[in-house]
Fold this sequence. Notes:
Largest sheet: 5 strands, mixed, barrel
Number of strands: 12
Number of domains: 2
Radius of gyration: 15 Å
Amino acid sequence: MQQAFTDFCGIVAQFQDDWPQVTIAQTIYPQNCNRLYLQASEDISAGAMCNIHNSGGQKIRNANASNTTKPCFAYAPNGILNEKFGEVYVMQGLASGFSGLTIGSIYYLNTVNGDKTLVAPAGSGQIIQPVGFALSTTDLYFNPELLFTVNP
């Protein structure tokens, strides 16, 4: 039954053993949480802001605002080890499991790999990319801005 819900509705996560074979078309359904199952090209911590890139196919790595090469497109609800497949969420939605968020505050992609910050990066060449706002001290409404600004 779970496989039917997974394959046809997208309302249940794919079986973890299947993640290496699951295509993007099999994961993004309009009615689910916009899950993708991608291979990590580096260790990614739970709750990390992530970048999808091409390295012999779609892969996931930590997003970073230091320059324009690693903007945030997704977040990882769980940690993913280098070269392993893991689940990431794209688009907008509730991201839970954080701590110490400031309710109502906008969070930006940080210059620290995978991190978010209350203060927009200000260095030359760094990007200003809002990634969401805090609904509670533990919940972020994840909504990464795809048209980010580059500091002069």
